Amino acid sequence: MHPSSSASGRKHPGMKVRVKAYASFRDFMGPNTEITLNDGADVDWLIRELERRFGSRIREELLDEKRKPRPYVKILLNGRDIEFLQGLKTKLKDGDEIAFFPPVGGG
For residues 1 and 41, is the Cβ–Cβ distance under 8 A? Predict the structure, then answer.
């Protein structure tokens, strides 16, 4: 069951996570979003909730066909790269801030 839903399918209050999107990700997520999830939710469930709210483009931009983060996308939880935590299975807690950074070009 999705951590933001109860057995009856109704949502109930839980932890709040702040989502910050940067550069091109702002175009389809906006710069700041607050998401309420049940305790025990992880980064993967957060992305599923963002996809439900904003459409499949989020998944397409963030994750590959095996549902793994694309190598050029950075996902930070409270300033720490989830790659060095538990990846998409990193648990979230109330008040966390997660940031999505698209690829950055340089020259």
Answer: no
- Residue 72's domain comprises 19-101
Q: At CB < 8 A and 24+ separation, what contacts does 50-53 make?
A: 50/19
- What residue ranges of the chain have pLDDT lower than 50? 1-8
Q: What is the pTM for the complete model shown?
A: 0.82
CATH of the domain at 35: 3.10.20.30
| Cβ contact 25:103 at 8 Å | no
Helices H / strands E in the chain, number of each: 3, 5
**Residue that is written with structure tokens 């599923």 in the block:** 48
